[in-house]
């Protein structure tokens, strides 16, 4: 994915296209490449923005879901993005939820896929095992329905992170923060139109997690994708994009109709 990484102050991000901003938040082992299919498609219709979340750069006290949500708030303020469509995968979804609970006025719609915030299967008690490449490869494969999605490049990225002692400490800190920061009944206060896209074969945040989000968030709709794991926007970008684009179009049609009335 050869997009220019822009810098403003401490913020690093990709911004492509014009129109209403779609902000994409990656997960714990996420990289910009997770969103290449989404970015290539939606930059035709929207301003697509991917901030690089400082998973390993916050001080240890700020290394939490709330700390990342604060970072996203400062980023959106600095860039003066308004009425954003906020999309998050895995930990990125959790960060989006914590953000919207504090700043609902800034968000036009919320899109969650494989989000933490209610329940997630961790990487196991022994995780991460430093220096065990096979173990990391198997764990990375579990993210997907199709293990071939765990390319050598992707496994190498995760392996590099888990081979660094300081990064491992930060990962464990963030993972524990996500488990502790269970949102539960708070979700009932979210009034923003919300789209939930879940892989039917997600083993990290299983389908029942998507159903629980749907039950708790009042103005939400839930879509399942077959033969798909924890990162639908990577594994089945075509199907994911169609569902998300249809949701955004219906939202805009409703807004146009309301203004006309």
Automatic annotation (TrEMBL):
<dbReference type="InterPro" id="IPR050266">
    <property type="entry name" value="AB_hydrolase_sf"/>
</dbReference>
<keyword id="KW-0378">Hydrolase</keyword>
<dbReference type="GO" id="GO:0016020">
    <property type="term" value="C:membrane"/>
</dbReference>
<dbReference type="GO" id="GO:0016787">
    <property type="term" value="F:hydrolase activity"/>
</dbReference>
<dbReference type="InterPro" id="IPR000073">
    <property type="entry name" value="AB_hydrolase_1"/>
</dbReference>
<dbReference type="Pfam" id="PF00561">
    <property type="entry name" value="Abhydrolase_1"/>
</dbReference>
<feature type="domain" description="AB hydrolase-1">
    <location>
        <begin position="21"/>
        <end position="235"/>
    </location>
</feature>
<dbReference type="InterPro" id="IPR029058">
    <property type="entry name" value="AB_hydrolase_fold"/>
</dbReference>
<protein>
    <submittedName>
        <fullName>Alpha/beta hydrolase</fullName>
    </submittedName>
</protein>
């Amino acid at each position: 994915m050869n997009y220019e990484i822009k810098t403003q102050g401490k913020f690093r991000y990709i911004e492509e296209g014009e129109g209403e901003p779609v902000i994409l938040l990656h997960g714990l082992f996420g990289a910009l490449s997770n969103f290449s299919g989404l970015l290539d498609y939606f930059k035709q219709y929207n301003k697509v923005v991917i901030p690089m979340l400082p998973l390993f750069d916050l001080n240890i006290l700020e290394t939490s879901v709330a700390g990342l949500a604060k970072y996203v708030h400062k980023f959106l303020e600095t860039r003066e993005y308004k009425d954003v469509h906020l999309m998050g995968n895995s930990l990125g979804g959790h960060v989006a939820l914590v953000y919207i609970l504090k700043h609902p006025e800034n968000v036009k719609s919320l899109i969650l896929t494989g989000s933490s915030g209610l329940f997630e299967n961790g990487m196991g008690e022994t995780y991460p095992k430093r220096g065990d490449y096979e173990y990391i490869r198997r764990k990375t494969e579990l993210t997907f329905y199709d293990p071939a999605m765990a390319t050598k490049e992707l496994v190498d990225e995760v392996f590099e992170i888990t081979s660094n002692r300081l990064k491992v400490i930060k990962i464990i800190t963030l993972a524990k923060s996500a488990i502790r920061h269970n949102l539960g009944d708070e979700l009932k206060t979210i009034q923003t139109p919300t789209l939930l896209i879940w892989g039917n074969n997600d083993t990290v945040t299983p389908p029942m997690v998507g159903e629980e989000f749907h039950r708790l968030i009042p103005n939400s709709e839930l879509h399942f994708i077959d033969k798909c794991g924890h990162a639908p926007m990577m594994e089945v970008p075509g199907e994911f994009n169609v569902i998300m684009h249809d949701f955004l179009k219906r939202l805009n049609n409703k807004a146009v109709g309301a203004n006309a009335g």
